[in-house]
Amino acid sequence: PNFTLTLEASMKPQKTGEPIELSCDVTNVSQLPPGGRLGVSWEHISLPDEGTNAHSSKLIGSLDGYGNLLSDSAYKDRLDSGVLGLSRVSPNTFKLRFLRTQKIDMGQYGCTVSAWTVSSQGDVVKAAEYKSSPLTVRWDTKSPTLNVAAKTIRKASVGGATFEMSCTVVTENIGDWIGFAVNIQSQEKLGETMKTIMSLSPDNVVQHSNPERSDNLVLSKTGAAEFQFRLAGVQLSDKGYYWCNVTAFTKQQAEQSWTVAARSESNKVSIDFQENGPSFSIIIRSDASSVYPWETAKMECFLTVSGSSPKSGTAHTQTG
Question: Rounded to 10 degrees, what is the CA torsion of 206, 208, 209, 214?
Answer without folding.
Answer: 170
